[in-house]
Fold this sequence. Notes:
30% helix; Alkaline_phosphatase_AS; phosphoprotein
Amino acid sequence: MRLTKTLLIAFAVCTAVVPVAQAAEGAAKNVIVMISDGAGINTWHAASYYRHGGLGHEAYDAFDVKLFASTHPLNTSKEPTGTDEGAVTFDSKAIWNASPVDTVFEGAIGNYPGYFAGYDYIRADITDSAAAATALATGHKTYNNAINWSNTDARLKHIGEYAVESGRALGVITSVQWSHATPAGFLAHNRSRNDYVGIGKEIVDSGLASVVMGSGHPYFDKNGGAIEPADDKAFQYVGGRDTWDRLKSGATDYKLIETKADFEALADGSLDLSGKTKVLGTVENNATLQFNRSGVAAGNLLANQPDLPTMTRGALNVVSQDPDGFFLMVEGGAVDWAAHANNLPRLIEEQIDFNLAVEAVVEWVEKNSSWDETLVIVTTDHGNGLLQGPDSDKVAYSDIVSQGAGALPLVRWHNDNHTRELVPVYAKGNGADYFTSAAKAEPGLAAYHVPAESQVYIDNTDVFRASARAFGLEVEG
């Protein structure tokens, strides 16, 4: 295949470069972290009910480690404070407090009765995706809005940098804009997640990653229709007009791909990279792969968009060419956007797309690698929407109700924003046992009907520690 031949030649030329950090013997060659953004436990359940009619049928259900994670930020400031003032504390026991309350949560799209003290607790002091991504990628808690930036106003080193220093490749893909908070957390550094131009420019100019994919195309709208950009703001998600022009002209390290056909060719190994070894894929959409298309129902997908499984296979084809291994982050970013909108059909649609990407990863590991060689972590950065069962106004944390495969489950939304509920973590492969050694007991998780060994939780910063430990790397801090 032309892809394989081109990349192997390029990597052979680079073998004289000595990596800064050497992996320990017995370390994992590859680490893959998959993030379904904004997916509380019932997001996973709703998709499984719709797809299979029951639980226990998804690829991650067969993983060796199944537990939960806390996600709270260091503080809820939008900029570095330099002090401990306003630090968020977390008490997992407070989540399950079923004492009735007479409160109202004011959301962006509506108001939600409080019902129970536990609901109020997990709707308060929430993380944003930037602080959560920073925790997952660096092992450091920080203020909301930070992209690998500390509360003391200093740059933080992320797992992608450690991976590249160890001689491995880095890949980051998402179903939203590739300069958005979660992908940026594994690629860049910035005091503010909203500096999309600066983030996008750093991603391209650093050349750190071997593959980056997502949306944010300046010449297409949310329905995948061709447009003429109205102004320079249309180019914000791709690092600004100048960065985009350099990508288009081939004046960067990256082969730019845009069409669905090229994403599919990358996935099947037939894409000609024109002598380059790195790929930046920007799908023909300025918003998301699918979620932001017109309407609110599922189905009638945009025909010119690749799906997340295709992008995942393409990314694996690139990063796996590095003989020393790789770190890959895959994000189902629009799951979060659907939860913000309380849109159950599209929430399920986005989560299923993510679950299919997990299947693509498992298939790749078992066909091209092994679980002794690769660690896969499947999780989320935080909950969103506080999705519960239809009678969860009367019984705290009551189950959503399956209506069978192909039918929407019965649910009740209690929020249209992020939460600090304990969220699922699934892991399998070399290094997965770190999570069980780091976990703390939380019997309240029995409310989710998980076995006793899963009634434990880690902190989201442990995802970084597990990744670095699996790689056998010495890390800062």
